[in-house]
Design brief:
alpha/beta; Peroxisomal Thiolase, Chain A, domain 1; 2 domains; five-stranded mixed β-sheet; 11 helices; 24% strand; binds acetyl coenzyme *A
């Protein structure tokens, strides 16, 4: 997708819309997605491959999840290295250089290490200035959380271009002895550049985001070990506390409920009807969750961007990988509305409304 040059965007004014002495209106600031990128490891793990690891079969995986294959990172590939490659692509896609970026935020549940932040690794690896860089953890909703944070920071200044990245090496926390979870996940990274722009007619760019969380349901999807409550000990390792644990049925039910609510909330408060939405870019967890959402919102499946068949669930990377592919494949035409919507451990959820410039 060809992207405009944002280097001439006017400086932000805290006074909001103003007029020139002659009465002409000056355009208002808005925040647009000026570039996207992704990185997927080359190694493919198919459903057939999984039948050699756990007691499962290809048909069960495909019909219960919609997933055919997923990508698995090599030992040398980390959330940081994958994030760096996705970021490199997004910055080039925005017609910018690494030194133009004013802020880096990474969403991940699989950082390279507990600290320092993976965002700091990306910042130095790409040769950026000594700009602010930090990580956020909101599981599969992480990208929507950092999008909203970056949107506010760019909208209110002084940041002009923010780089946001969802990246995961879920294969590192997947229990390869647990057939109910190991079939679901994959590795990868997706990135976007948010840039301050201006509009003078119909408002475009990132229009609104709703976020939520329900900590009371934290236990249904978690990794118990590795934090200060259960630090690594021989016992925690033997009892497999350092792997992801999930009550799939409970997550499934709540996922449909919160994604429906987030989508309806964002439609209602922006005075839009479901049939005005050109495309939905959902978190890629399970095709059956997306089909139920489609049915409840009365938005046909053709308007949902789907790539979970190829990549599985990549948690915080899932929405930005899909966003990049959706933009590249003409799913986001100028003037059209899109909704990004997701849920994840926490339980967390969110939805973002975009109108493409
Ligand atoms: N192969 C064959 N059989 C299996 C497998 C497998 N891989 N896994 C489970 N089964 C069996 C179960 O043992 C069970 O057998 P039983 O009836 O004899 O007890 C049967 O299949 C049905 O199991 P369910 O768990 O009820 O299957 P369900 O239809 O709910 O599908 C799934 C399971 C795919 C996990 C689904 O619940 C789901 O997608 N949940 C949401 C997951 C999700 O979105 N997670 C997001 C996490 S991402 C994040 O935030 C990090």
């Amino acid at each position: 997708m060809k992207t405009p040059d944002f280097s001439t965007a006017p400086p932000f004014s805290r006074e909001g819309p103003t007029e020139t002495p002659s009465g002409q209106s000056i355009s208002e600031p808005s925040v647009v997605i000026s570039g996207t990128g992704h990185y997927l490891p080359h190694k493919v793990l198919t459903n057939t491959d999984l039948t050699k690891i756990v007691d499962t079969n290809e048909e069960w995986i495909l019909t219960r999840t919609g997933i055919s294959e997923r990508r698995i990172a090599e030992p040398t590939e980390t959330s940081g290295t994958m994030a760096t490659e996705a970021a490199r692509m997004a910055i080039a896609n925005a017609n910018l250089q690494a030194e133009d970026i004013d802020l880096v935020i990474v969403a991940t549940i699989t950082p390279d290490q507990p600290f320092p932040a993976t965002a700091c690794y990306v910042q130095t690896t790409l040769g950026m200035r000594t700009i602010a860089a930090f990580d956020v953890e909101a599981a599969c909703s992480g990208f929507l959380y950092i999008l909203d944070i970056a949107h506010a920071m760019v909208r209110n200044g002084p940041y002009r271009h923010a780089l946001i990245i969802g990246t995961e090496k879920l294969s590192a926390i997947t229990d390869w002895q647990d057939r109910s979870t190991c079939i679901l996940f994959g590795d990868g990274a997706g990135a976007a550049v948010l840039s301050r722009s201006s509009f003078s007619g119909k408002k475009t760019g990132i229009l609104d985001t709703t976020l939520g969380a329900d900590g009371a349901n934290g236990h249904i999807l978690q990794m118990p070990g590795g934090g200060c409550r259960i630090p690594a000990t021989p016992d925690s390792i033997t009892s497999r506390q350092h792997f992801l644990k999930m009550n799939g049925r409970e997550v499934f039910k709540l996922a449909v409920k919160v994604m429906e609510k987030a989508s309806l909330d964002i439609l209602a408060r922006n005075h839009l009807q479901a049939d005005e939405i050109h495309s939905i870019i959902p978190h890629q967890a399970n095709i059956r969750i997306i089909e139920m959402l489609s049915s409840r919102l009365e938005i046909p499946m053709e308007r949902f961007f789907i790539n979970l068949d190829q990549y599985g669930n990549t948690s915080a990377a899932s929405i930005p990988i899909a966003l990049h592919e959706a933009r590249e494949s003409g799913f986001c035409p100028s003037g059209a509305y899109s909704i990004l919507v997701g849920f994840g451990a926490g339980l967390t959820w969110g939805a973002t409304l975009i109108r493409w410039p």
